[in-house]
Amino acid sequence: MIHGFIPPERFFAYLTWQDIEMMTEKENTVIIQPIGAIEQHGYHLPLIVDAAISQGVLGKALSLLNPTIPAYSLPTLYYGKSNEHDGFAGTISLSAHTLYSLIEETVISIYQAGFRKLILMNSHGGQPQIMEIIARDLHQKFPDLSIFPLFTWKVPNITNELLTPEEKELGIHAGDAETSLMLALLPHQVKMDLAVKEYPRNLSSNLLSMEGNLPFAWLTREVSETGVMGDATVATQEKGYQILASLAQGWVKVIEEVYQF
Are the CB atoms for 226 and 175 separated by under 8 Å? Predict the structure, then answer.
């Protein structure tokens, strides 16, 4: 199943060139590029977490989307800019320049095929800024291209309602939310017997933060021994199904709005 979680009828790469050539309403067809990373997620989660979340959430959303709305998923971009996890075996990281070029040239190809609405659906917290820069540059180059640099977790969803206050503030990697969602998406790849609770250490400022309004640059090995920043031990599959359903509904609304944009 090359399409993975994506419904086959919504998988762009299953179309023929004639399907695309003869497609009507291409200017309003929504093309979505799922983007993740291959990087460490502690002892208990596989490297594929971010890519799996992009594809899994999008697949669920597309299965719920009104079939009259034309929307297609491109093949998932598995590699990302993950150099904050340098030193943890298995992490594969592209430079910002390489990631920029890869997405830029993909989008130009989609534009040349006649499409004018494209979502960059990114699930890796280390690269939203790159998505925003690419989107602005491409919109300047192609003013009739509507491009949306979106983060998977920022659509309306209930995830924070399921987390403790400490987890909401500090559980930024391989903690409760990601582990629960992976228990729903790829349960056989989650090793809950190896799950740990580890919050970032050596944080001495109340004003500056890792990912807040006043962030500082950091590397995972400086703040975590296991690679986890959160409490994975409290994750459950039940929470994962709730998170998946909520994120998918949020993404249905986003795709509908992009279609109408």
Answer: no
